[in-house]
Specification:
Two copies of one chain form a homodimer. Chain A is mainly alpha-helical. Chain A contains seven helices and two strands, in the order H-H-H-E-E-H-H-H-H. The interface between A and B is large, with 47 and 47 residues. Chain A binds a DNA duplex through helix 3.
Chain lengths: ~140, ~140
Amino acid sequence: MRNTSRSVHIGPPRLKIAVHAIVWLARSGSMLSSAMIASQVDSHATFLRRVMQSLSHAGIVDSKGGREGGYFLKKSPAEITLGDIYEAICPVCNESEIKVDCGEQIDIELEKILQEAELQTIEYLRHYTIAQFMDRIHFS
Amino acid sequence: MRNTSRSVHIGPPRLKIAVHAIVWLARSGSMLSSAMIASQVDSHATFLRRVMQSLSHAGIVDSKGGREGGYFLKKSPAEITLGDIYEAICPVCNESEIKVDCGEQIDIELEKILQEAELQTIEYLRHYTIAQFMDRIHFS
DNA sequence: TTAATTGTGCTTCCGATAAGCACAATTAAT
DNA sequence: ATTAATTGTGCTTATCGGAAGCACAATTAA
């Protein structure tokens, strides 16, 4: 699970970790602690908790604190899409409304178009549910 | 022109610089040296030359070395799209064919889908020619 | 009361990318 | 021919966003 991607554009660790975690939760069908998930996903519990919170805010998972607490899916794998996860994880999607209002107009226009393009990406990823995604995988 | 974007996904300096440079070349209608473009775009000549070479390989611009040399558009602004530029600049698009063949299958499948998504982004950006893009800008 | 867990502030570390220098090769002006 | 300007590129250094990781308050159940 070490990050081997050299792309800046796509596939930051957060997204990969998030998908892994959700797939694990789906497979287990129960509640899992950050430590358990982290060990499976070769990540770190603290980092994973932050990722999980993004997913929590998006209504994809929920958490229970205290002893015997952990994370669990709030939706079925058939209801969660990769687009939902991307949207939840991707920092730009969570930024305030005021994006680029400084800088030259050429930058502003370019930024607008790139944001539109990113929405297209999310729409495309909505075509894949976690259930469908898991069907593509031969678990070892 | 300092990089103000906090997104990892979209809008790396290279892309912004490339678009700026092409717009400048289009406006000037002539050949410009890396030093000239760099000063306009608040970048650095060396970095800009590397960016320009990516564009050159993509057939978007061409260069002439030696004294009185520089860069010039090889296509008209109406023939160059933002998708072309993205494709030329984006590192992943230029990588060798062998992408992710190591790692777990879940990573491989995810990577495949994310690459498909990136192609969608490029297709979307093909809808904007530089000519159209420049029409959106009020040059000061 | 104790143990396990989330959520989060904080600091440190790391890696990818940009900055920037240097210079060979090239090309045109003089 | 000589000189000046320019690309292309190898190399080193600097920068910076994100991840790693510690610590601990708050919470919750054993």
